[in-house]
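Predict the 3D structure for this chain.
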Amino acid sequence: MERKKFIDVLDAQLIPALGCTDPVGLAYGAACARSYAAGEVLSVEAQISVNLIKNAAAVCIPKTGGRCGIPLALSLGIVGGNASKGMEVLADLTEKDLAAADDLVKKNVIHSTVADNDKTLYLCVEIKTTEAAAKVIIEDDYMNVTFVEVNGQVVSSAASRQDGGAVKSAKKDVSFLSIQSILEFASEATEEELWKVAKAVEMNTAVSEEGMGGKYGMGAGACLGRKMSEGSLGSDWINDALMRTMCAVDTRMAGADMAVMSNTGSGNQGLTCIVPVVSVARYWNKSEIEMLRAVTISCLMAVHIKENFGILAAVCGAVIAGASCACAVVYLMGGGEAEMRQAMKTSLGNVAGLMCDGAKAGCAMKVSSCVYSGLMSAVMAMDGRGIQATDGIVGETEQEMIDNFVRVSKEGMEKMDKVVLDIILNK
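Done. Predicted structure below.
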């Protein structure tokens, strides 16, 4: 087994992100366009895919005091964004930048429309200033710039590669991932090889701890923690994992000025893959390397399930992360490949239809549902139980299960996604 391939996947998929990736993605695209057009901004036109609009409309943006909105996200990228920092594009934002962004929004020069294509992640930003005009297109991945035009001249494109290769390929081969190969790699990996996973644990655990005070979002995690302390809810390993994960999501969805380690392009999936697994491992007093290997399984399983899924979709991404953490918890329980496969199938079969109605404070509750499904699926798998292939969309094999899940999410829920967006934009 070529262990470097797995390490490369972890390095490519575990990316620090400050704020929800969708409004931050808009800010990144706007910052990229602005970098080619100095001068006073006269107009900004943004064409945005349905799923990107849905997830950017109502979630709080970091460094704004809990504010949200697509025009604000675009304006922040223009006046204070640093595109070189990727998904931490707003890390250097100041109060002066926020005021300037507000002024830009008030001038009513920023306009956005739904992109006229079928891509789940698409952003075209056109900026006209007193000195220049620039157009930037991002497709399939938040930082995948596929086209740049300045003053009517193509500077770079995915076809021409005139930028010397700076245009990134959003699709990387991860076909070698399977439950078997992931388990083999994780079981052999050393702490030195898993340094990125350790960093992810550090970052996402800190975000979880920040949310325990209950000052962010719905305070769902802190509420659960209080009830556990009072004795009205059990203080066990499952509730501890739910509480810590909800605290993390509460914090992030409220726009806290703390970066998280995202996975497969999603901060919430990064939190859901990592925080409950760390909680369970520490609750059971597992060693550091056992914990890191379990988290590695969870992170790689998310990549494996999402390979043919797309970065954004109608289904809640926590469904994938919940099934991934199920496999990790099976590992912590001493289970093997067969139990991991059953846990994954049971978890996906349980919550596969959980829809995404945009990034927002309520995501903490959806995440808790998926984490609970994953943890209970692990328990059941270790007891030789789970949803069987005769039931619903559950497949006989690992790949059949994933294929069925992808089909339901992409084909079956496509119309629903448009209905949800219509409700969000018109209520």
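The beta strands are 15-18, 41-48, 110-114, 122-129, 133-139, 145-150, 153-157, 259-262.
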